Amino acid sequence: MKLLEFKGVGFGYPGQALILSGANLSIASGERVIVLGSNGSGKSTIALLAAGLIAPQHGEVLLRSSCNHALRIGLVFQNSQSQMIGTTVEEDLAFGLSVLNYPARQIRSKVAEFLAKFGLESKRHFSSSQLSGGELRRLALAAVLITEPELLILDEPLGMLDSYNQAVFLYYLQNELPCQVAVLWLDHDIRNIRYCSQTYLLTRQKLEPVGMDQLNDERILSEAGLEPAPLQPLEWRFPRQVSQSIYGPELIRFDETQS
To answer: What does the longest C-alpha to C-alpha distance in the chain come to?
Structure first.
């Protein structure tokens, strides 16, 4: 079942050029989709449109739940601090559940569970501003997963994290994300296609599905304003001599079958 569809979506901010024009995209339950675009190309705007936080000026953004309620969406912002509401870590975890009218006893139980799952028990009474960058990103992920979303939107989730904290974030994503949850991942780093099964390229205000051959084309990457993976230029000099050059060194594989 398609949870999210962009149908001919157009959008631009007042006084600025269009960000999207006639954009199409669809995500079904359990799918992992990545949208690649250069910095400033409009990826965060796509995240806001997909989350229903802003409306398209043209076309439609369709959100459909497989349950008998509105589609439940979790969004991890590029700047995770901006999505923190509570005065403490445990209040940030409890906020989404309180909005969904969970009983107080169930909120306390789930908050305790997620503090333990995400290694944040010792930080429960800290404010989010006291957390390290890695802890803050982990809290942002925990705060959306605790509400059991059907669609998870990740806006440059590995950005501004060192390699260790990237691996930690991916570990929690792999081990705590139910396999039926759909993922929309927005990024500028081509190597992150390894964590998704379908890739879209954002270029010239269009969203177009692309395959490996296109992503390994120097001209296409240049037109999209994307940096190649570290080994891709070597692949272009010696075609088919560098195995899976587009990925580069791998941190951890995102196993879609794992619940």
So the answer is: 62
